[in-house]
Structure formats: structure tokens, C-alpha cells
Design the sequence.
């Protein structure tokens, strides 16, 4: 048993180092089919743990149809549903791959994805960018229309090529300094990335402008970047995911590597138990609605994987860095600080890169340990957007990851490692 | 006496409204001779209260010589000193005009100045921008060299014309939204304006790109903006100054409208006592030196007018917004909040535009009332840079405005208004 404890401690140290010592760079924009490992033709990814087609919430079912139409695999909804039911289309969790299913998390091969390379962990993750005027659009909200499809083509063929040319020229853009500095400017990098957006703009805009391309070509790319709120969100997710997947498969580690919900179930993944999900009914969020007409009855339980940022030590973990986000939910500065301090009780270490003014420059906790969750009874707090059951965002808030996920994971861990 | 109290209350309400209801816009870049009212040919402005040439600290004397050489009024230092002593050159406080003498505050007619127009107060203020690679350079540090002079010409003739073209096209850039948002992102807008810089960049860069000018012309202007740390500082000063001068001359008002030091004396100006200075020996700063080799013995007492931002309710007043600045001085978040709360005891009102996350969205105090300073014994806390007596910045810190300034002002106020 002391031997086991030591093995776990060493494993968790290595796992947490994947998160704290990571070195994420934005290196390219590529079709999902080229960069998401295991994403085959006629395959659709979605957020949260795996779910059968018939059990999917409306937003996911709609997203499946949208994917069929977008890829041209079906000519209409009827044909799409038939093909989906025929078994000819493979469906999988985004978090079973090196990507992130934010919101509905609909991902197919033709989507242009932001590619993040972790130069310490030697991993890559690909995340989908916000769809400009369509916001969540196809990927995040599971919508399809001719305009949405045309916009995705426009992004892929017109907006991203100048970015690719810039990245070929500069060798990539380091993301960690942006994340670290933004954490000292009010961002927790889940619900809010206002400073990160601006820091990104300051680096990227002059480099784009310097390209030897027609001005109108460059200007439409620049306009897309500056006019898209939370543009940096997908980079934070990519940085988080490329770090976390490096920890997947470290034997004996009890560290959480992923969180995600599908609107019915919420699941976690654990470093020492690779490829497995530990699920519970998806939680509702507490927070603030965009209108007083909404109540919990309108809310879809947690959907989306953007809480991979919490798994990497940002978002809810970083509440102290962002009283502006917590205040939107009626919480005080003191409560924001308390939220981060509470997370210290269930995390493996601290991230020396995220030194927070509101913590008198103490660093943020990072790396949830399923053992500590069970021992303390404290579940991770995660931030996110609230979806209406009928579609559309109706607020922002927070939830606790269900204890049941950790109980199941701990049981599986004990079974897995009992005789080793 | 109740009548007097009421008159003062009404006057202070009007004076504080100049600060809280202001509407500053960046509208132009113009030679100081065209925009600084009362700045004549053969006239040199400096920071702080008026001071005789022979009593000037070395930094100011050197600045006077630099000004003579820069304007071509003298061919060398010897001739410059002779002319300065001859009385042919007029010397005045920058704060006796619609400008701000940050640092040494050397201002002459040919300098290109950032022009801020206050569309509520119908005032204008002009402030000098940072000198790119020369940082404080001529204006802020009082230095002169051929390279510094060439850089000032380069700024005036090459870097600023694209900005002027942009401003002619867009009708000006509103500064208050930038100040307000940056206050929610860790800036107190005296020592730190990191977020303001970025918010400014996001607005200005795409508009500069879009100009119909050769790319290399635009790129050098952009490079100047993004490569100059604290570029926005002069805009914050211009916004503050254009608001404060609107309050100058409001009868019965006991509100402070300006603060500034000349390295020997520190002075304040009061709305109801226009054109007068109330001075005391300039304070030393407490804070952090850039090297352990420096002590207070190296420090020049307070020099510079950039604390006009405190007079307008930012900087030291806004400590709670910027624990990162306070921490650099060894102070905690709790102390940062306490500093702002203390300023509430000596200010007239609150600024509804500056709602601060770390105050649970309470607003910042604004408008120092000399009566409240005397009543409470609390003097305004001002932030700033520490100058070495021999020149050069050696740290950043804070000081209290000397009580003697307020005592003298109160005495003068009583004399002025006793029989009215």
C-alpha cells in the first residue's frame, strides 16, 4: 500500500507536469480530417460521453443531421436520419480524440480547425473556431443552413489562408504567454477571455497586415478576428486539450484529463484509466439567464466539452482571477477567491505560470485528483454557457461535476490497479 | 454659514460632474504651439508649480537647455543658459495651461501633441506621447541629442500623419470607454495602462490598416504604437486634464483640479481659486526600486504632473482595480482595496463609469475636497515613477500629497470667500 501510494504520487506528479509545463503553439489551420486523429470519413463527433443516436438530446440529433447535410452525405433531413440509423455513419465523442466538442461539438472531416501543437508534450489538439456572425453556428450549436455552410467555406477558403501564410512565416504563435498574462487581467479563460483576445490581436494583427497579400484579403481576415467575441476561446481549449491528452495513459495516475457533457450525461476521464468514461446524470447550471423569462425548466443539462479548460487548471479553478465573471453570477470577490481556494483542496499541485494578483500572486491550483474529491467531498466547479433545451444560449453559469463520476472512477481505478 | 455650505456643496457637485460626466475624444495631433493655449514662441513649459531658473533641479535645468537646442533658439548649452538667464525666454508651469507636464514636462511650440477634446465640457487638452525607443526622451526626461530631435521630427512628420488621416476620417476616437473597460482589467491608469493599450490597439490598428496609404507608411506608425509601452498613458492624462480644467474657476468649489511636482515643491490647484498654486516641499515616494543599489538618497522628490489622473479619479484612487500595481510595491489585495476605500473619505462623489470588479462593482471615488482632507487628516495617495536625482527612472511608487498644500489652500479659500 505505501508502494501504491508512492506510485500514484509519482504518476500524478508526471500527469500534472503535462499541464503545468506545457508549451502550446498555434501552428496551423487544417481540415479536421487531416488533424483529428481517428476522425474517419462518414464519422461525426459530438460533445460529452458517447451516447446512442436514439438517446441524444434534440441539439445533438439536430447536429447529426446538420453534419450529414454539411458534408453532403445526405440531401435532406429524412435521408440523413435514415443513414444515421442505418449504421453507415460512425458517431463518437470528440473527447475520444485530440479535439474538443465545445457546445454541441459537431465535428466532421471538412471543418477547418485551429491546430495547437504542444512542444513540451509532443501532442497536437485541434479545436473549431467561432463562426463569425453565426457565433456557435454549426459546430457549437449544431445548426445548418446554406448561409452557415457558405460561411464555413468562406472561413476555410478565404479567412484562414492568410493566417496559414502568417504561421508558415513566423513558425507559430506561443499561446502560454497569452493565457498567463490574461489571467492577470481579469480572464479565467472559460467564460471570459477578453484580455486574451486583445493580447492575441496585438500579436497577430500587425503580422497579418505585413503579409504580401492584397489588402482586402487581409482586411477580411482581420475583421473576422476582431469582430468575433471570444475568438481566443478555441485556443485556450486547444492548449488545455493538448496538455491533458499527454497525461492520458500514465499508469497509476488519478488525475482527471477531461470533462464533458452531452445534455443527458456528464463524464470524466482519468489519466490512469485511458479510453474509459465515468458518467452521471448531467448537472444543471446555476448562474444568470439572459432574460428573466428563463428558468431551470428551460435549461438543457450540461452539454459541451469546453470544461476541458477546467481540467487544465483554468475556468472555474481560476475564479479568483475573474471576479467580473463571478459577479455576473451574483458572487462577490470574496466568493471568487474562496472558489479558487476550495479547488486547492482537490488538486495535485499549483501552476507556477498562473500567478494571480487577487491571490496576492499565489498561483492557481491545477490537476483534479479523484481521490481528493472523494476524500473531501468537494467536486470541481466548472464554468460554462447555458443552453436552452430548444437551442440557443440562455445564460452563463457554473456547475459542480457530479460526485458519482468520481465514485465510479475510483471504483474502476481500484479494480484496475488492485493486483498490480 | 449654512448658505456658504450650500454654495460649496453645489459648486462641488458641478465641479465633480466635470470629472464624472466628461466625454473625452482623441481628435487630432497638433504642434503644441497651435493647441496649448498661452504657449508662446520662445516659451518653455515644465512640470509642477512655477520655479525660478536658479531654483530648478538639475533635470529641469537640463530640460530648459534641451528645449533651447531643440527649438534652435540656441546653438549650444552656453548660449542656451545665457538666453535663459537673459529673461528673453518665458518659462511657465505646464499646469497653468491646457496641458500636462509628465516627468520633467518640457513642452515647446514645435512638439507634436495628442489632442483630446472633451465634448461634454467643451475643453481641449494636449499631452505629449511617449517617444518610442527614446521613452521619456525630450519631454518626459528633459534630454536632448541629435537622435532624440530626429525622432521627434520623425514622429511629427512621418508617424503622426497617418493617425491624423484616420482621425479626419472617423471623427475621433472615444477615450472614456477605453478607460472604463481597462479599469475592469487591472489598470489603474497611472502606473499601469496595459489593458487600455490593448483596447486602444484593437480600435486603432484596423482603422490605420484600412487607410489608403502605402503599406510601409502605415506599418511604421503601427510599429510605433504597438512597440511603445504605456502608449495610452498620454490619453489618460489628456482625458483627465480636459475634464479638470473645466472645473477650474467654478466659484466656491473646494475640489482639487491639479497636482504636480517640480522636484522641489509639490503643488495643488483648486477649482474655486483659479490660477493659484498651493505648495509644500515635494514628497519622496515609497515603492520599489529597479535595483537594490538605489535608496531614497538617490531619489529626486516628486517631479511631474502625471498625477492629474489622480485629480480626475484614477491612479492611486483606483488602487482596488489594480492589485498588480500595488503588489509591485509589496502591498496586498486587501491593502489595495483599503487604499481606494480610504480615498472615499476625502472625495466628493463616485464615478458611475468606473465600476470595479474587486469592489464588487462599487464605483471609484472621485474629486478630492480640500475640506475633507483637512477634516480627516487623510491626504490623497498618488502613484508615479521615481526619478534619480541624476536623471533616469529608478522605480515606481506612491506618495501622499503633503497636508501643507491643503492647509494653504483652505486658508486662501477662507480669505477669498469670507466676505462674499
Sequence:
Amino acid at each position: 500500500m505505501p508502494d501504491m501510494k508512492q506510485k500514484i504520487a509519482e504518476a500524478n506528479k508526471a500527469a500534472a507536469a503535462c499541464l503545468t509545463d506545457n508549451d502550446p503553439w498555434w501552428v496551423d489551420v487544417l481540415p479536421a480530417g487531416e488533424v483529428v486523429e481517428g476522425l474517419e470519413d462518414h464519422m461525426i463527433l459530438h460533445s460529452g460521453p458517447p451516447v446512442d443516436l436514439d438517446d441524444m438530446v434534440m441539439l445533438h440529433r439536430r447536429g447529426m443531421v446538420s453534419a450529414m447535410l454539411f458534408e453532403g452525405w445526405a440531401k435532406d433531413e429524412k435521408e440523413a436520419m435514415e443513414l444515421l440509423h442505418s449504421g453507415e455513419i460512425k458517431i463518437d465523442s470528440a473527447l475520444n480524440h485530440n479535439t474538443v466538442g465545445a457546445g454541441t461539438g459537431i465535428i466532421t472531416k471538412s471543418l477547418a480547425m485551429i491546430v495547437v501543437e504542444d512542444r513540451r508534450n509532443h501532442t497536437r489538439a485541434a479545436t473549431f473556431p467561432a463562426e463569425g456572425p453565426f457565433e456557435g453556428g454549426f459546430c457549437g450549436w449544431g445548426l445548418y443552413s446554406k448561409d452557415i455552410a457558405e460561411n464555413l467555406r468562406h472561413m476555410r477558403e478565404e479567412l484562414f489562408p492568410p493566417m496559414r501564410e502568417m504561421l508558415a512565416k513566423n513558425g507559430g504563435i506561443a499561446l502560454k504567454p497569452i493565457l498567463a498574462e490574461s489571467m492577470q487581467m481579469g480572464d479565467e479563460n472559460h467564460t471570459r477571455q477578453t484580455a486574451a483576445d486583445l493580447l492575441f490581436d496585438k500579436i497577430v494583427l500587425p503580422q497579418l497586415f505585413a503579409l504580401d497579400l492584397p489588402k482586402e484579403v487581409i482586411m477580411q481576415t482581420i475583421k473576422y478576428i476582431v469582430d468575433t467575441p471570444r475568438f481566443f476561446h478555441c485556443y485556450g481549449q486547444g492548449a488545455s486539450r493538448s496538455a491533458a491528452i499527454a497525461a492520458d495513459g500514465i499508469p497509476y495516475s488519478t488525475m482527471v484529463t477531461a470533462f464533458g457533457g452531452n445534455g443527458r450525461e456528464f463524464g470524466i476521464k482519468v489519466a490512469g484509466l485511458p479510453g474509459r468514461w465515468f458518467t452521471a446524470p448531467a448537472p444543471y447550471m446555476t448562474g444568470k439567464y439572459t432574460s428573466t423569462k428563463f428558468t431551470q425548466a428551460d435549461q438543457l443539462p450540461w452539454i459541451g466539452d469546453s470544461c476541458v479548460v477546467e481540467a487544465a487548471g483554468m475556468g472555474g479553478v481560476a475564479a479568483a482571477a475573474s471576479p467580473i465573471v463571478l459577479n455576473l453570477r451574483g458572487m462577490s470577490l470574496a466568493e471568487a477567491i474562496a472558489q479558487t481556494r476550495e479547488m486547492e483542496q482537490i488538486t495535485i499541485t499549483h501552476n507556477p505560470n498562473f500567478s494571480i494578483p487577487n491571490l496576492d500572486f499565489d498561483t492557481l491550483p491545477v490537476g483534479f485528483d479523484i481521490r481528493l474529491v472523494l476524500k473531501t467531498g468537494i467536486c470541481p466547479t466548472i464554468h460554462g454557457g447555458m443552453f436552452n433545451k430548444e437551442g440557443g444560449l440562455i445564460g452563463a453559469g457554473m456547475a459542480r461535476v457530479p460526485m458519482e463520476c468520481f465514485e465510479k472512477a475510483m471504483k474502476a481505478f481500484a479494480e484496475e490497479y488492485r493486483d498490480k
Notes: Chain A has two domains: 21-235, 249-417. Chain A touches chain B at residues 184-186, 194-195, 198-199, 201-202, 205-206, 209-210, 215, 218-219, 222-223, 226, 322-324, 327, 332-333, 357-361 (CB under 8 Å). The CA atoms of residues 5 and 251 of chain A lie 13 Å apart. DSSP finds 15 helices and 15 strands in chain A.
